[in-house]
Each structure stands twice: as structure tokens, then as C-alpha cells.
Amino acid sequence: MLRHHDRVEPKRRNVVDHRKKQFASPQYKHAEYPHRLNFYIDAPTADITLEQFEQWAIDRLRVLGELEACSFRNKSPAETATHMKSILDKYLPLDSNSSASGKLALQRQKDHYSHFILRLAFASTEDLRRRFTRVESMLFRMRFHTDDVSERAAFVNGLNLDWWEAVSEEEKVQYAEELAAMLPVRKTIEDESWFKVDWERVPDLVEQRRVFLKQGKAFVPGREQQSMVVSEFTTRLEKQLELTARALPRLDEDDRLKPILTHLSKNFITPDASYMAGSTAPEGANITAANIDNLSQHFPACMSNLHRSLRRDGHLKHYGRLQYTLFLKGIGLNLEECLVFWRQGLRHKTDDEFNKEYRYNVRHAYGEVGGDSNRRGGGYSPFSCQKILTEHPPGPGEAHGCPYRHFNMENLATLVQSMGVNDRSVMQGIKEDKDGQKFHMACNRVFEHVHKTEIRKAKDQGVMTANQLETIVHPNEYFKRSYLLKNLAKETADVEMEG
Amino acid sequence: MPHSTDMQASSPPRAVKDEPMEDEAAMPAHVANPAVDDDAEMEQTEETATATASQGDKEIKKDVKLQDLFDDDDDSDIEVDDSIFTPTNVANLKASDPEIMRQFYQRLFPWRLLFQWLNHSPTPTNDFGNREFAFTLQNDAYLRYQSFATADLLRKDVLRLMPSRFEIGPVYSANPRDRKQLGKTSAFRPLAKELCFDIDLTDYDDVRTCCDKANICNKCWQFMTMAIKVVDAALREDYGFQHIMWVYSGRRGAHAWVCDKKVRSMDDQKRRAIAGYLEVVKGGAQSGKRVNLWRPLHPHLARSLDILKEHFQQDVLESQDPWDTTERAERLLGLLPDQTLRDSLRSKWDAAPGRSSMSKWADIDAIFKSGAASKKFDGKALLEAKQDIVLEYTYPRLDIEVSKKLNHLLKSPFVVHPGTGRVCVPIDLKALEDFDPLEVPTVQGLLAEIDAYQGAEGEEEKKGVADWEKTSLKPYIDQFRLFVNGIMKDEKATAVKREREDESMEF
């Protein structure tokens, strides 16, 4: 092997003089922004000040945070758009080419840079990456939707996406009937331009049966093009974020950007997680297995329904048990009591069956067993309304989910009546909320009705600030507030008696 | 009650713990046997048979001793050991009995085919080696993240632990047994698994009248027949999948394994999309009307409706008679959207109790034609309501969670259902209508068949006849082989193509 000593190692062969390379001034291509929309393919390369770096990121974060809040409140796309308009105008305006605004380049630069700064801030954990992709895709979709038609077409053409093809005339004739079924009533096949893509490119359209499928190809009507572009945006961003995550350790030694980035990501905590912080039992509450029946008067409809089903059937299916266990954990029931509660609740099961099939799951939810991360994290967090509303809709024989969403009106009315709502106008309000898919509004409406005297008193006496009385978006918050209000009333009543 | 668990844990392992030594003694006989390679089955030659027989003797001796120690033990133990090799008594044992399981795994289970099925090639690859298996042991302990390099190693471990059943999980990016060393990094994550579907007759409890819970009969099995037809058609025609195997789950349902190469590597989002595409009957008992569809109907639904219409007449209206009582008929009325129509139907049926569901279904149209419905409710609305009802009563009810997740485990084909003793055999779609779940061979029956065969042939047993060939399991294994060969042929074709491309690149 010694005879090779005069050969240059392959890896080094290209380095002519590394000192020269180190100080050569880089020839950056200045980014141009021909379109309002941006797929964020190339990273920005020009210099900006640290202040700009931080300010731009904060502004974008504000927009994203607000967007996420809208989705948690289950607002429709139209409502979200109206709500977001003023916020976007203030923090992240983006004008179209035709608007003749003098600030186009600046606006687009800010949009571009802030996106990439936040990528750095949110690439570190999988959870953050997922949420970032989600809200960024929402933002992109919203902008895509409002973009000028011709400019949008130019943007899409500029993307050079090669994975869709036009549907030929023969195919249109061959599948005329099937394609017609994909259209709203008064349209004909000829009104639409059709695309043919691999179905895997448009999973969300497939899931909702909004495309016709034939041998793995999806026939997509032109108006669904948005969905294809957005899903492409999402997939690319997901990939890019993972690459960013791998490159992140290079920033470890940095003391200028690192603190800013950490600070940014801390400001973006999930509402789910934020609840955990205050998940101790309200003061003076006797939270034991024996007392749950009594406490259940403070439960929101979803948990009340679970409780009733359990008492009626002596059983709950898996997701019902999970949803309820985590809620109970959230109100401060400790593991031992929770095991006692379930042992008694599942009354048809023998001790043996209980130990084998149920004990583990309860302990898992409390983080007593399971993987390392589960134990360290203290098990799962109690489900938020958002999670209950959107994940795992109940199937046959299942009692979990949100009654305002998953019950029909008749059954919902019965349930709500049993919770003490008999007022006709409130019932009407609930129906309207349900029809308008504002399920959390219906729930809050019930809360306000059931606690109306206490709320008034609390406001009068200034015991609870308006902040503490804002919209409830978590079942555990419902319980906590209900408990506090009812006991507040009791306390003051006691005081008055004495006085 | 911590005591009960302790008891549970301590008694069955006694039986299990004894296995390895005896098994070790039996194994060399297999390894040395050159015929092993030719068959799907590990051959059970006379040599091994004697080995097993002598084990049996050993066990009897052992048990006598044990019996002295545990006087109050119930005497089922002795029965087990005395009777192992007499056909009449095999049938009396529980399916999950360790001895039954041992014989089943040793003599009947198609290990080699299972290996080829999951490995997609005759030579061991990571597709099999990094695949997770999960065992349910005799004491109901659940053992996850098992993995094996070859079919032999899997077989050996199954015989050592004697699980009452085992499940198949995904292929991971690394060997599942090494997962602890890899820690939390993304180096250990699920990569691929077949797309699975699970349909269970318990989900039909609100529409079937013949049975409930875990019970089934041929009447309600028809729901499964319809479900398989509809899902299979969608997977093949709409998605273009080819390698789909339907398996009877041993008691009250069926599983589908979609094994196309492209399908196996799909992520959760795509799986969710397919699951959502196929899901029509939504909501629980509290949601009222559970089928609510947009019009015009999606082509998949239009096709499904075509398939299901006929079954609805025969298998629902006629054999289930779902609206026979007033109470049950109320459910039908609840699904009709028009108050006036409902009222006239109700009064008609109250006047003539005992009308069959068939007549009641026809009454809807008759009453409607006589003009007893409000004006805004036209013929189109009625047709749509009736379509929704047909779908609510017949459309497949999938256990959707199984399909949504890449890393969901599902019971392996050909294992024995511990409750019924029936083997999870593949269902032949060409003879789907003739499939009778109650005729599926039980493990006890199969073992008796082997013995009966040997009895009939006497001493001059033909060489090279595997045990499974002597039983009614043969057609199912043949069918499985055909299926597995189809997959292997496909994958081989793509592999060769790739190789050729690589070669051409070099020049």
C-alpha cells in the first residue's frame, strides 16, 4: 500500500487551495419574486439585520398562531379568511402583481425570509414540524384561494409539476357517466378541465370521494387543482423540514440566532400541552373514585355521556375508556383511584379479566408503563375539544366523541335536557350551532345556561376576570370552571348566611 | 386482586417451560431431513413421530410426579397426556391446549409458505428478517417485537413458546429485536406492511336478527359475503390492486391482506385515504341515520349499490326479517325523512301486525304512490332515502383503525382461533358464495384426519406425503401457495427488470 503515497486522496483532489475558497466572496443570486405565491424552494441568501430576523419571524408567528386558533375553534374556511384578513394585512401583507403596490418586492422578501426563519425554529421535534407544516399549508391554501386567477395559473405553470396529465377526449367519453357523478348538478363534463394523476398524489380528495378512481388513477376536476397544489406544497415542506432538522446541530455553537430561535419555538406551544400545566384538582375538591358520580354534574356533555354509558352498560369501548380515563386524570383523579373507578365501573368483568385486559391501559395512560417517552411524559394529555371533534369519530356501540357533533339532534336534545337545559331558546341555539358546525359554541352555550346565576354573581363580585370566562375549548377546563363557579356560589352563600 | 394474576402467571409456564428441551431433541430430525425443502410443511417423518411419542412418555412420567405434588389439581391433566395419540380424544381437547398447539405447529402449519409470503422471495431478506411478530402466550401474556431471520427460526421459537396465536406487524427499518439499542432516533421506524382490512360481524348487531355477539350462522355470514364483494371490487377496479387475500378470522369475521409491492410501502395518510374512501356507515348508536351521502352517488357507491341490491332483498329482507315487530319497524320509519309518509305507514302496519319486512318494504312505494306524502317529498327524495337504507343495512362495516395505521398488528393466516379451534383459512373468491364458516376445519378435526389417514394406509405409508396433504386443510394451503407464487413472480419480474436497467447503465 505504500506505493500509493504520492497519490492524492480522492476526497481531497478537488480542493485547489482551501484558503482562497474560504474568503472568496460568495456570488449569491438575488432572489426574485415574480409571483405572489411562493413554494419556498430556494433558501434566502441575502443579508438581513438581526432585528429584522427576529421581527419578521415574530410577525409570521402571529399569523400562524391565529390561523391555528381558527382551526381549533372549528371555523369554516370562509370565516377564517374574514377573521385573518386584518391580521394578515397588519403583519404579513402580500399584494398581487396587478395591485401596483410599490412594496411588492419587500413584502415578498419578508414572506420568504420569515418562512425560512421559522423552519429553523420549528424543525427540531416531530411535533413542531407537524404543526408547522399544517399551519403553513393552511396559510398557503388560503392565499392560493384568494389569488388572482391568471396570476395563479402563471404560478402553477411555473412550478413545472409533471405528475399530472390531461384527460383525453376518448376517456371523457368512455367514463362520461362516472365523471358526471363527480360534478355539481348543473354542470356538464365539458365545463371542467380534467386531470389524471396517481391517486396517491391526492389522498385527501380520495378520502372524501371527490375524484373518480380507475385502476389507481384519479380523475380530478379542474376546480380541485388547488388541492393537488397544496398537497404538493405540504409534501415538499415535510421533506425539507426533515432535512433542516438534520442540519440543525450545526447551529449549536451559534449564540446569536440560537436564543432567538428557541424563544420563537417556545411561543408556539400547543393548547393541548398548555392545559397540562394547570391540571391539578381544584382546591378542596374531593376527587376520588367514590365521588365521581357526584362530580359528574360538572362534566361537559361528552364526559357526561361516557359516564352515563358506563353506569348503564357496565362497559365502554376502547376509545371511550381512553377519552374518559384521560379526562379523569386531568381533573386530578390519581392512578390508584382511577383503577378503583374502572374496576367498579366495568362491573361485568371478573378481576382476572380486568387485570389482564384493562389495568395495563389505564396505567399506560398515566405513564406508569410503556415506552420511555411515555413514562417520562407522564402518559398522554387529556384530549382537547379539537382532538375529540376531529379524531376517531365513534363507530357502532361506541360512546366517545363529542355529542354536539356525533349525535343526531333528537338524541342530543335528550342528553342536554338531562343535563338541565329545558329552555326552548337555548335548545334552538344549540340546534343552530350544530347545523352551523359550531360544536364548541353549543357546548359553551349549555355551560353558560347551566351556570348563568353563578356567572353573573362572579362577574358582579369581580371574582373571575373576563379572561377566566372566555370560550372553553377543553373538557377539563369545562369541569374546572364549573366546579369553581358552583363552589363559589356555595361559599358566598355560606358567608351571607353567617353575615 | 394481585393474587389471581400470580396464579395465572405461574401455572401455564410450567407446561411451557418443559417444551424447549424436548423440542431440541426433536429438531435435529427435521434439520437432517433433506425432504424438508420440497414441501411447504416441515415433514413429519416416522423418525420425528417416534421422537414425539417418546416425549409423550416422558411427559406422562413427569406428570405423575407432579400429580403427587398437586393432589387437588383437577384431573384434566392426566387425560391430556394419556390421550394424545388416540384420535377420538384429540377431539375432546380444547383448541388452545398446548399439546394440540404443538402438534398443529409441528405438523400442519405452512411455515415455508408463510415465510415466502412475507419475504417475497425464496432467499431470506429484510422483508422477513425485520418483520415484527407478536405472540399471545398460553398465559395470555403478549410478547411484541419478535423477529426471525428464517422460517425455521420462527417455527422453532413458536414451538418453544407455544403461543395460542400470533400476529404479524410491519417491516421495520432495523431488526425489531435491536430497537432498544437504537433508542429514540428515527433509525427504528416501521417501513412497510400489507394494507389490511378487518370486518367483524359484531358490528352488524343492530341489523342482524339471527345471532348476536360472537355467534354466527350462515344467514348472517351473508353480510360478510356482501362486504367482501364490495371491498374487493373497489380495491381491484378503483385502485388497481392485484394481490388481495381474504382470510376467515376463525370466528365471526374476515381479514383482507393487500400485498402489492406499492401498497406495502404506503404511509398512514394514504392508508387513511383508502379507509375513508371505503367507509360509508358512520357514527354510533346515538347518531340516528348513519348513511348520509351526496348525490349524485360516487361511482364506487353506485357500483356497490348494484352489488348489494340483490343481497338486500334476499339476505336482509327475507332471511333477517329486520322489521318484523312494531318496535323494529320503528327503526325503518326513523330512516324515512317524511312525516306524513311515516304516519300513514305506521297506521297501516299497526292495523295489520305480523307483516313481513318484505311487504313492509314494498308498502313504502305503494303508500307513496297513493299520494300519502307531503308535496315537497318527491319520488327522487324517496329513491335516495331508500338507497341510503339499503346501504345502511348492507354496506361493509369496516373496523377502520386496522386499515389506517402502518404499524397495526393483525392475526396471521393459518393460526388457530383459540375459542373455536378453527383455522384462519383463506377464502376462495371464486367460490365466495359457497364459503361456509361453520365447515372450516378445526385443529382437533385435522389432527384426527391425519391419524385416520395413517390408520387407513397402514404401515405402507407412501413416502413424501406431508401431514397437511392428508387433511382437509390441503385445498386451503394449495390456494395460499398459488397466491404466494403470484406475489413472488411479480416481485421477481420487477427485480430482474431493475437489474437489467442497472447493467445497461454501466455501458
From TrEMBL, chain A:
| One CC-aspect GO term | alpha DNA polymerase:primase complex
Keyword presence, Iron-sulfur: yes
- Biased region (Basic and acidic residues) positions are 1-17
GO biological-process terms attached to the record: DNA replication initiation; DNA replication, synthesis of primer
DNA primase large subunit C-terminal domain location is: 296-479
Q: Quick check: keyword Transcription in the entry?
A: no
Which keywords does UniProt give here? 4Fe-4S, DNA replication, DNA-binding, Iron, Iron-sulfur, Metal-binding, Primosome
Residue numbers binding [4Fe-4S] cluster: 302, 385, 402, 443
GO: which molecular function terms?
A: 4 iron, 4 sulfur cluster binding; DNA binding; metal ion binding
A Pfam family that this protein carries is DNA_primase_lrg_N
Give me the ranges of the annotated region Disordered. Answer: 1-22
What the record notes about the co-factor is: Binds 1 [4Fe-4S] cluster.
In terms of PANTHER family, this protein maps to:
DNA PRIMASE LARGE SUBUNIT (PTHR10537)
Q: What does this protein do?
A: DNA primase is the polymerase that synthesizes small RNA primers for the Okazaki fragments made during discontinuous DNA replication.
Protein name, entry field: DNA primase large subunit
Per the UniProt record, the lineage of the source organism begins with: Eukaryota, Fungi, Dikarya, Ascomycota, Pezizomycotina
TrEMBL record, chain B:
User: What are the Polar residues biased-composition ranges?
Assistant: 1-11
Give the enzyme class.
Answer: transferase
Q: Region Disordered: which residues?
A: 1-58
Q: Which UniProt keywords apply?
A: DNA replication, DNA-directed RNA polymerase, Metal-binding, Nucleotidyltransferase, Primosome, Transcription, Transferase
Query: Has keyword Transcription?
Result: yes
Q: Where is the composition biased (Acidic residues)?
A: 36-46
Recorded hits in InterPro entries, A to Z, give: DNA_primase_S (IPR002755), DNA_primase_ssu_euk/arc (IPR014052)
Q: Which GO terms describe its biological process?
A: DNA replication, synthesis of primer
Keyword DNA-binding attached: no
What EC identifiers does the entry list? 2.7.7.-
Q: Which GO MF terms are attached to this record? A: DNA-directed RNA polymerase activity; metal ion binding
Q: Which residues form the signal peptide?
A: none
GO CC terms for this protein?
alpha DNA polymerase:primase complex
* Record Pfam families: DNA_primase_S
The record's similarity note reads: Belongs to the eukaryotic-type primase small subunit family.
Stored PANTHER family = DNA PRIMASE SMALL SUBUNIT
Q: By what name is this protein known?
A: DNA primase
- Source organism per entry reads Emericellopsis atlantica
